[in-house]
Write a structure and sequence with these properties.
CATH topology: Aldehyde Oxidoreductase, domain 3
Distance between the termini: 12 Å
Radius of gyration: 16 Å
Order of helices and strands: EHEEEHEEEHEEH
Number of strands: 9
Largest sheet: 5 strands, antiparallel
CATH class: Alpha Beta
Structural class: alpha+beta
CATH architecture: Alpha-Beta Complex
CATH superfamily: Molybdopterin biosynthesis MoaE subunit
Shape: elongated
Helix content: 25-40%
């Protein structure tokens, strides 16, 4: 089992470093998910986002999500970073790199991790709009509330595919 990497960062995310963390000769598939600041949300023009976090708790949740994923599939290599602070359009806010011998497991892991982060990690975002106002955005609106759900979905997919 390769220990996962999970961190909050205040500087731009080093994507190359994340990819190197999940790559080796046994890895046949590497996926990279990048969440970026976009210019429109719910029909409103967005100019930037402030990300804030309860640092110790957020890092603890990141580690729990990453460790649960790797425990569910010991061939998985995982690196996760989320940026906090003020970001502008196009900036990368979250990056998830997953490496595995097989593409399905790498893709499933990336999806499960981002869903778990959105539901479980205490990171808040305040969108700034072209009109000059701002609004806090609720990342938990879809109703799932624990990283256990994402982990169980990943584990189920791995069992169904016959891979481990």
């Amino acid at each position: 089992m390769h220990p996962p990497h999970a961190a909050l960062v205040t500087e731009p995310i080093d994507i190359t470093a994340l990819l190197l963390r999940v790559s080796d000769e046994g890895v046949g598939a590497v996926t990279l998910f990048l969440g970026t600041v976009r210019n429109l949300n719910d029909g409103r023009a967005v100019t930037g986002i402030d990300y804030e976090a309860y640092g110790a708790m957020a890092e603890s949740e990141f580690r729990a999500i990453a460790n649960d994923m790797v425990r569910a599939n010991q061939q998985l290599r995982l690196a996760i970073e989320h940026r906090i602070g003020t970001l502008v359009l196009g900036d990368v806010s979250v990056a998830i790199a997953a490496g595995h011998a097989h593409r399905a497991q790498a893709l499933d892991a990336s999806r499960a991790v981002i869903e778990a982060i959105k539901k479980c990690v205490p990171i808040w975002k305040r969108e700034h709009y072209a009109e000059g106002d701002w609004n806090w955005v609720d990342p938990t609106a879809s109703g799932r509330t624990t990283h256990d759900l994402a982990t169980s979905v990943l584990a189920s997919n791995l069992r169904a595919s016959g891979a481990s």
